[in-house]
Amino acid sequence: MQGLGPNDSLAVKDQYATSKGLDIRISFHDRYSTNRQGYLNWLISNYDIREGFKVLEIGCGSGGLWLSHDDVITRCQELFLTDMSEGMIKTAKENIGQYDNVIYQIEDIQNLSFENDLFDVVIANAMLYHVPDLDRGLYEVRRVLKDEGIFYCATFGENNFTDILADWFKLSGEDFNPNHNFTMQNGYDKLSRHFESVTPLIYEDSLHITDMEDLVTYLKSLSSFKAVLDLSDDRIRDILNEHVSFGTIDLPKEYGMFICR
């Protein structure tokens, strides 16, 4: 799949101008995911962040990764939380609060303002598929990462619950255009052009949904499901109810991360 065009980039900026849609999706997964460890907890449990490390997160969003992980934050000599969206930076700062070692700032992965060989760890979760020039972005990550540093990046797979939902709503073509620019299936090859060692890890999980109203709200927050917005809430409920079994809907999830050196 080709990279994002100018219109796609503007759409991404609009989608993440505030944390509202992201908060809806995070809350939905927190409530209905069957793996109770939690995806963000799983991610941070796999990070090798040691005392005195300089850490950069690109695309920090609302800062959810760091909530309840004060021990990891204070372990860092410096923790830079960055995002392209001023609104997201504001929300992250409100959620995480002020620390002497935490710096919040606006950054574009394709043109990072940091000097070479600065960071021990760089993190990019659920954002690489939005980068218009991914090779340029990965070049910048490698540039600011120390030779012995580690890059952690998380993404989804191409066989996810959204594909099943799109089939239920008979979405295809322009009505359903999932972003597969960087997935668990193709990420290895893209990362291997910039890193000598790339190790994939899969997060085992699924969705067990007991309240259809939450699923309706979730669907309406997805940019790839724009055609669903043309349907009434009653019609959305009718389609979902065709797939309810014993009061619930069960769907697969395919998520994971890459560890790059």
Describe the fold and architecture.
Helices cover 34% and strands 21% of the residues. It is of the alpha/beta class and 261 residues long. The chain has one domain (6-162, 176-208, 251-260): 3-Layer(aba) Sandwich (Rossmann fold). It has a seven-stranded mixed sheet. It has a two-stranded antiparallel sheet with strand order 7-8. Strand 1, helix 4 (70-75) and strand 2 (78-83) form a beta-alpha-beta unit. Helix 2 (20-32) runs antiparallel to helix 9 (212-220).
Question: What is the CATH third-level topology name?
Answer: Rossmann fold
Q: Compute the number of structural domains.
A: 1
Mean pLDDT: 92
Please give the oligomerization state of what you see: single chain
Q: What class do helices, strands and sheet pairing give?
A: alpha/beta
Elements, N to C (H/E) = HHHEHEHEEHEHHEEHHEE
Distance between the termini: 25 Å
CATH architecture classification name: 3-Layer(aba) Sandwich
The backbone outline, from C-alpha atoms, is globular
* Name of the CATH class: Alpha Beta
The number of distinct β-strands equals: 9
Biggest sheet overview: 7 strands, mixed
Helix content: 25-40%
Radius of gyration: 19 Å
Poorly predicted spans: 6-12
Per CATH, the superfamily is Vaccinia Virus protein VP39
Q: Give the percentage of residues in beta strands.
A: 15-25%
What's the tally of helices? Answer: 10
**Sequence of strands across the biggest β-sheet:** 3-2-1-4-5-9-6
